[in-house]
Amino acid sequence: MSMQDLAERFRAVDTTAICDADKTVRTMSSAIRPRSAQRRICGTAFTVRCRDDFLAVLRAVETAAPGDVIVVDGGGREIALAGELFARGALVRGLGGIVIDGGYRDMAYISGCDLPVYSRFVTPMAGTVSALGDLQTPVTCGGVTVNPGDIVLADEEGLIVVAPDQVDDLLARAAAVKDAEGRLVARLTAGATLSQVTNLDQHVDTLLRGEPSSLALLA
Q1: CA distance 197 to 111
Q2: What distances in angstroms separate CA 147 from CA 47, 62, 144, 163, one per listed residue?
Q3: What CA–CA distance (Å, rounded) separates 46 from 105?
């Protein structure tokens, strides 16, 4: 599946439907927050590991392929590892976004920027620029492992990471979740209650008996 096809399929769902389809999906900490005007990400991870030094991030911006998402393991430190110039450079190269477990700065520009930018902190203090760091190695960002080539997906709800060999099936299951939700919304809009569109009463009674049960939507 091409990245264009993947992006099109992701537009039809959202990260909440993906998480409902698979409770084990890697979900970054909500401390990694959107900083730019554009929040939606769909791209291949280009990973970076560095500490208090942004040379590796600069190298990544200039090395990654168009559509790639720069994912930076900055150790969760409150030091800016990128700013306005990095975002401008990423836009020129057609990258898909920048996600930093560390700091970002230059919000006067970034807040209206079309490049999706996420970070743990906003801070004016930048790191040094003399350590090579590591590129394209497994990293930890937002509390989850991100491997080079993983698929990074983000929207207003947050950031998730999916192995490329799992994304096709996961998007299909997320689409089924959205379809079911659509039918539920239609019935609620028509005046049905949540108890009428789910097996809520039966589910609670079964749990009270100490037996396993699952909440389900009713046709």
Answers
A1: 41
A2: 7, 19, 10, 8
A3: 21
Checking if the pLDDT of 144 tops 90, the result is: yes
φ, ψ at 152 (rounded to 5°):
-100, 125
Distance CA 56, CA 33 (A): 21
3-169 to CATH, choices 3.30.413.10, 3.40.50.1110, 3.50.30.40, 3.30.300.180: 3.50.30.40
Q: pLDDT tens across 178-208, in order? A: 998 999 899 999 999 999 999 999 999 999 9
**Residue 106 annotated as lining a ligand binding site:** yes
Read off the pTM.
0.93
pLDDT band at 217 (very low <50, low <70, confident <90, very high): confident
Please check the confidence at residue 121 and state whether its pLDDT lies above 90: yes
Burial of 124 (0-12, 13-18, 19+ CB in 10 A): exposed
**Mean pLDDT value across residues 5-27:** 95
DSSP 168-206: HHHHHHHHHHHHHHHHHHHHHHTT--HHHHB-HHHHHHH
What is the spatial distance between Cα 47 and Cα 71, in angstroms, rounded to a whole number? 5
> Has 105 been labeled as part of a binding site?
yes
Helix axes of 55-63 and 84-92: crossing angle, nearest 10 degrees: 20
